[in-house]
Design brief:
The complex is a heterodimer of chains A (about 290) and B (about 375).
Chain A: H1 2-44, H2 48-52, H3 74-82, H4 85-116, H5 122-131, H6 137-150, H7 157-181, H8 185-193, H9 198-205, H10 210-226, H11 229-233, H12 242-247, H13 257-268, H14 271-288
Helix pairs in contact in A: 1-13, 3-13, 4-7, 4-10, 5-7, 7-10, 8-9, 10-14
Chain B: E1 4-12, E2 18-27, E3 32-36, H1 43-51, E4 58-63, E5 66-67, E6 78-81, H2 93-103, H3 108-121, H4 137-149, E7 155-159, H5 167-184, E8 187-192, H6 195-201, E9 204-209, E10 212-217, H7 219-224, H8 229-234, E11 241-250, E12 253-258, E13 261-264, H9 267-276, E14 280-285, E15 290-293, E16 301-310, E17 314-321, E18 324-331, E19 341-346, E20 352-355
Parallel strand pairs in B: 3-8, 3-9, 6-7, 7-8
Antiparallel strand pairs in B: 1-2, 1-4, 4-5, 9-10, 11-12, 11-14, 12-13, 14-20, 15-19, 16-17, 16-19, 17-18
Classes of the chains: A mainly alpha (about 290), B alpha+beta (about 375).
The complex binds adenosine-5'-triphosphate and magnesium ion (MG).
Chain lengths: ~290, ~375
């Protein structure tokens, strides 16, 4: 028993140090993560003069200058009146939600069949599906552009949705297959005996995969919403989304910081509640494991 | 409702795992048949093939005069209790029970009536608003039974439906299920590894071992005239003991040589064994037809006590003779303990005779 106490004493020191270090680390991390967002928000409601008034290095008292301004929404108003941000916001919404719905519908059906059926080369097929996500987007964007050009999809919302779906679908299949694997087939067998056909039985168990499907829809939306490359190349012209539009506020002769910051806020704001949601769903989904009866 | 038959049915799970071999069985309309056998003998597989949940490797399953091999479960008009319950985890117990009725488009008030009725019968009416994960194992099992009995299908399929209930509830459920089946007249296949359930409930018992149907007969026949030595030892509790014996003759009369002992035969058994003409036999005796005594008996066999177990009303004494062991029932006042020499006795008309080579019963 004595040796055991010595071991816990050793551990005690490490734990004590960790206890001190981790809050400090977390505090730094919090500042690191939140400060840019905070500055962005502040800068978006200041006029240019206020935004660039910074205290001298070392002048800590001058930090109050940062909060010394009268808030203005001119940048936001200008974005929507001068820069068509209404359209871009609409494009972002349609492209991300549209691709998420398509990917999740096709993906859940595909994942279901891959989970329930056995056939030769199934493993190879699964690997092939995920391997389409292994190449970086930049590597495929040029041929994709050529293809989309030839079928007149460049610069259209359906084109952009198709591009996002191409990239979200393999991910959907893999993620949802895991969820369906965790749902005992016996439940569908019971449904079939109760008088349902295969498809009705699938619909019966669908609510059990709901946490996974919910999490996945949100991840899809996040991917499409934050995407820059597809939106600038495939979407350029008629289907620009918020990130691509924000980039265009950087002109060679004039960088409009106020508008850029406001656009950043517009782009980020809807994703924060979504991020919190995905956290809840993901945790619920991933800890669900096998469905308990 | 409908007669059900298996015709040369095989089930091969692939990779050499043959679960059911050449199953032939004709179940009559309205009959209660029990599939009895040890774990892994292919009972569930057979039942699942009946339900249409398992592909039939070869052979035919026939409902009435219709081959159902290609018919999906929903078109077979069956109700099944699954071995692992398979309740809908996200639905309340009420909805679990109501689901088959909803599929059959039964009107809402009729659903309510039937679900309540089934729930009362199964003593789960206070649980109807809960979900399956808030139930105990036995309560889940009763829910699974309820889902099957809320409607009146062509065939009931039960896969060990009461295995997880306590002894008292099990006894009650046995009679409730039997009553219900008799009243509705639904053809029933009931899988169990509990021979008491099979013997008490079934009109006929199908005894299976290792994927092969051993015997398909009434409970009485299975118990009294087992088709082979395997069935003989499997059915009956405590089980029958088998002894290796050889035909011999003593002073011109037929007798059995058991180690160094000889056992005289009654006339009927002697005639039966003479007709069969086998030399090596497996001879079985049920514990309640054998007796042990510490005093020497007229035809007793010298032996030694191997173990002694209290059964309640009496004791089960296992004795050792050479390399054979024989179980016999004795009075609780029986004084012997492990290692005590004693004497075993039985009447030759109570013996069961099997061919030592293939285990088949010697014909009467
Ligand atoms: N999906 C499967 N794949 C391969 N082999 C299987 C499969 N299901 C069952 N088996 C095998 O088939 C045989 C029969 O199984 P089955 O489930 O019918 O047994 P059982 O008689 O119902 O046993 P228990 O009383 O334990 O439920 C077993 O040897 C089992 O290992
Ligand atoms: Mg089984």
């Amino acid at each position: 028993m004595a040796s055991r106490e010595i071991i816990s004493y050793d551990k005690g020191v490490a734990v004590k140090i960790l206890k001190w270090v981790s809050p400090v680390f977390l505090a730094f991390y919090l500042v690191w993560a939140l400060l840019p967002l905070f500055i962005m928000l502040m800068a978006s409601i200041k006029d240019l003069l206020d935004a660039f008034s910074v205290p001298e290095p070392g002048d800590w008292a001058g930090i109050t200058m940062f909060f010394d301004f009268s808030p203005t929404f001119t940048h936001y108003i200008a974005l929507f009146t001068e820069n068509n941000f209404g359209t871009y916001l609409f494009n972002s919404l349609v492209a991300s939600i549209g691709s998420a719905i398509i990917a999740v519908t096709l993906g859940s059906m595909c994942a279901y069949s891959l989970s329930r059926s056995e056939f030769r080369f199934k493993k190879d097929l699964l690997f092939w599906i995920i391997s389409t996500r292994m190449a970086p987007i930049v590597a495929v964007i040029v041929p994709l552009y050529a293809i989309f050009r030839s079928v007149d999809l460049v610069g259209t919302l359906p084109g952009l949705i198709l591009a996002f779906t191409t990239f979200n679908l393999p991910f959907a299949i893999w993620m949802l297959k895991g969820f369906f694997d965790g749902i005992p087939y016996a439940i569908e067998e019971a449904a079939q005996v109760d008088g349902q056909n295969r498809f009705q039985a699938f619909l019966t168990i669908l609510p059990l995969a709901a946490p996974g499907i919910g999490a996945f829809v949100i991840l899809c939306i996040l991917f499409a919403w934050n995407d820059f490359l597809f939106s600038t190349i495939i979407g350029s012209g008629g289907a620009k989304t918020l990130p691509a539009a924000t980039k265009e506020l950087v002109q060679p002769q004039n960088i409009d910081w106020g508008k850029i910051m406001a656009a950043g806020v517009i782009t980020t704001a809807p994703m924060i509640p979504l991020g919190l949601l995905v956290r809840r769903y993901l945790v619920a989904g991933l800890t669900m494991g096998a469905v308990k009866e | 409702m409908v007669a059900v038959s298996f015709k040369d049915v095989w089930k091969d799970y692939g990779s050499g795992a043959v679960a059911v071999k050449e199953l032939n069985m004709n179940i009559k309309d309205g009959e209660f048949v029990s599939l009895l056998g040890p774990s892994g003998c292919g009972k569930s597989t057979s039942l699942r093939m009946l339900a249409g949940l398992e592909h039939i490797s070869s052979g035919e399953i026939i409902f009435g005069d219709k081959v159902v091999n290609k018919l999906p479960p929903k078109d077979r008009d069956i109700a099944m209790v699954f071995e692992n319950y398979a309740l809908y985890p996200h639905k309340t117990i009420y909805e679990n029970l109501a689901n088959p009725l909803r599929q059959a488009k039964v009107p809402a008030d009729e659903i309510k009536r039937r679900v309540t009725e089934a729930a009362e019968l199964l003593e789960i009416e206070h649980l109807l608003e809960r979900r399956p994960q808030e139930l105990s194992g036995g309560q889940k099992q009763r829910t699974a039974i309820g889902r099957a009995i809320v409607r009146q299908p062509q065939v009931f399929l039960f896969d060990e439906p009461i295995a997880h209930l306590d002894a008292k509830l099990r006894a009650r459920m046995r009679s409730e299920l039997k009553h219900l089946q008799y009243k509705l007249g639904v053809t029933t296949v009931y899988v169990t590894h509990d021979q008491l359930e099979a013997l008490t409930m079934a009109d006929r018992i199908a005894v299976m071992n290792d994927g092969v149907l051993q015997q398909f007969d009434t409970p009485q026949q299975v118990y009294e005239n087992p088709a082979n030595s395997w069935v003989a030892t499997f059915v009956g509790e405590p089980g029958m003991s088998l002894m290796e014996m050889e035909m011999t003759s003593v002073e011109g009369d037929m007798a059995l040589a058991f180690g160094s002992e000889t056992i005289k035969l009654d006339q009927k058994s002697a005639a039966r064994l003479a007709a069969a003409g086998k030399i090596n036999l497996l001879v079985g005796v049920r514990p309640d037809k054998a007796s042990v005594s510490l005093e020497p008996l007229p035809n007793g066999i010298q032996c030694e006590i191997y173990s002694r177990q209290l059964l309640g009303a009496d004791v089960l004494v296992e004795v050792e003779i050479g390399k054979s062991r024989v179980r016999a029932k004795a009075d609780t006042s029986f004084g012997g303990n492990v290692g005590t020499p004693c004497h075993l006795n039985f009447l030759s008309e109570n013996l069961y005779f099997f061919d030592a080579e293939d285990g088949k019963v010697i014909p009467q």
